[in-house]
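Researcher: Sequence of FBD domain-containing protein follows. Predict its structure.
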Amino acid sequence: MSLPPAFKGFSRLLRLDLNSVLIAPAELKKLISKCPMLEYVDLHNLDREAEKLEIDASNLKYFSFFGSFNLICFKNASRLTKMSMTCFIDEKLDYDMFEDYAIFDPYESDSNLIEVLGQLSYLKSNGRFLKFLARGGVSWKLPTNLSHLTDLCLSSFRFQCIAQVMCALCLIRSSPNLQSLEIIICRFSGLEPEMEFVKHLLSAATALRKLEIGSNYAAKTGKGSKMLKELVSFCRASPKAQIIFQDPPCQ
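Model: Prediction complete. Tokens:
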């Protein structure tokens, strides 16, 4: 997809959905920046070779992405409050090559994800996006709290991936006002390390209202009731916290 040289944009466009479109990052940046009223952007399966995505949308409120990239940067996105990120990463990549791109350190990277995460009230992320965030290393907590974040959804979360676990804990520790936490853990089998992870979440989230855990393993083995019984026995820092246990398939 190429924009005409005289492209002036769409002055009244509120929503942009691009699905399976081959477009250069520079063209995408131009397209979005020329739509000043955009509130909703959904990018699905774009060019897999994009090195960097730059989103320039001053009126943007919701951003959804499904695909892969090496770096993402938001400009003039002070109104952005909701984000959904489903990221795919080549499992053969050597993550040592990303040592200079610590997403959690704004001074070490030209990505401003830290700043953007700090203004979100809703964040949905799959496990590989967590791995993307963690590729430069993960600290105990973020430099600044995610004070506005009330709803966090982590899907296709793999407990076997230490980077995902560390990143998830870092986000949770940095979200003091978290009210709803949904975690879909692939291959959750109720082993002691997994249950200790959940116990830690419940003991740390003081404003939590809902913890939703999905496990397809429980459905196959019939151990869902036993897992749920142990889960509800854990102490909770928030008296309003509810535990919802499901058996959905992992994506």
